[in-house]
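Schema walk-through. Below, the input block comes first and the output block second. Nothing else is stored per chain. Lengths vary across the set, and this one has 289 residues.
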Amino acid sequence: MTGAYDDRDGQIWMDGRMVSWREANVHILTHAMHYASSVFEGERAYGGRIFKSRAHSERLRRSAEMIDFEIPWTVDQIEAAKAEVLAANGLTDAYVRAVAWRGSGPDMGVAAARNPVRMAIAAWEWGAYYGDARTRGARLDIAKWRRPAPDTAPFRAKAAGLYMICTMAKHSAEAKGCSDAMMFDYRGYVAEATGANIFFVRNGEVHTPKPDCFLDGITRQSVIGLLHDRQIKVHERHIEPSELEGFEQCWLTGTAAEVTPVGQIGDYNFEVGSLARQIAEDYDRLVRA
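--- output ---
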């Protein structure tokens, strides 16, 4: 599939029915467009099966509840809709995007309790998020923006508004020739990349930031499980920036990123080592099992 995302062939599930891709539109006064009242999920299908599909559907509904609205479709209905989208578009290996939002209605201000909640699911072919970084290692900038404190935003929600600073940080990184940016949290600890969690290796043990102010990704949880299966010790903890020079390997995890080795963060260099490659291979096997 090529071309702009609003000008493609295909079908999108929208509010309970399939519509033509180009007709899947919303009104300019949609509340989510003005006030970020939107949640979403990014998922991948491998061989016709969405990895951890139900976990994503459950999180979508929880995310909506965290930002004060209820999705009027059950987890089972969302699961069925995703399968319908894949079938309608003839896709087996695909990226799946489910999104729910407050639409246009009688309210057009900060409060919008009377506006209908809407939902859509689209799917398309999407290759490696970071291109050839799986072999070379991604290059990351260090973002000037920090993940906010947990009492300032519902960080456990996969909510659109929380990605505003991620977009700015990634744009800045790309302008410097980098693939992405690593962000610190509000305290100055290492947090995550703009759309992926991060892991480090030192002396055969793995260290990953404690997700106490950013999303504990489904892929992150899966990778920790793979590390435990290999009897590799995992430290979930606060990581100081000064520790970066002492780590030997690094990788990112996420539905889009999958498991992507990192070769450089700012002035710090990492090898695309055997453990990073092994976990990437383990993850590939897991999602296709």
